[in-house]
Write a structure and sequence with these properties.
Blueprint: E1 5-6, E2 12-13, H1 16-27, H2 33-40, H3 44-56, E3 76-84, H4 89-100, E4 105-110, E5 117-123, H5 126-135, E6 143-150
Antiparallel strand pairs: 1-2, 3-5, 3-6, 4-5
Pfam families: AsnC_trans_reg (PF01037), HTH_24 (PF13412)
Protein name: AsnC family transcriptional regulator
InterPro entries: AsnC-type_HTH_dom, Dimeric_a/b-barrel, Tscrpt_reg_AsnC-like, Tscrpt_reg_AsnC/Lrp_C, WH-like_DNA-bd_sf, WH_DNA-bd_sf
Length: 163
């Protein structure tokens, strides 16, 4: 299968070779095409064509390197739940643009349930988080309240999607 076909608007149809390629690339994005081909039992040319098709279909995004947060002074993960004052499209857009502008906000999820957003914020320490919370996040005009939790230990962390 050299071309990716779509099962639905979002899900691509992947065969066994595509899945093997994705598993290897998620583990080692810097692997050479020759090494990848050997590991997935395919030719380098076939692997290259499939990677290009997976990129074109949006299955594969840009290649990145993962950074150890402790080594760069961002060793504390704060999980912050946020409740909005109102829920208009304009207010949500404003808040979502705000979180995009703040690099310490690593993840932002619009949530169902009692809280409107869930943020994962990478900071140096509790004092650093307190500054961000009190002087930045809670100063956003749309934020009504928040609740914070601190990760004691990262038990599991992965960026690899099960395929």
């Amino acid at each position: 299968m050299e071309q990716i076909s779509h099962l639905s608007r979002d899900a691509a149809e992947l065969d066994a070779l595509d899945r093997r390629i994705l598993r290897v690339l998620q583990r080692d994005g810097a692997i050479s095409h020759a090494e990848l081909a050997q590991e997935v039992a395919a030719s380098p040319a076939s692997c290259w064509r499939r990677i290009k098709a997976l990129e074109a279909a949006g299955v594969l995004g840009p290649a990145v390197r993962l950074v150890d947060p402790v080594k760069v002074g961002r060793g504390l993960d704060a999980i912050c739940q946020v409740r909005m004052k109102t829920h208009t499209a304009e207010v949500r857009s404003s808040f979502e643009a705000f979180v995009q502008e703040h690099p310490e906000v690593m993840d932002c999820y619009s949530m169902s349930g009692e809280w409107d957003y869930l943020l994962r914020i990478a900071v140096a320490d509790v004092r650093d988080y307190e500054r961000f919370l009190m002087h930045t996040l809670l100063n956003h005009p749309a934020v009504a309240s928040s609740s914070s939790h601190f990760a004691l230990n990262r038990v599991k962390y992965t960026t690899a999607m099960p395929v």
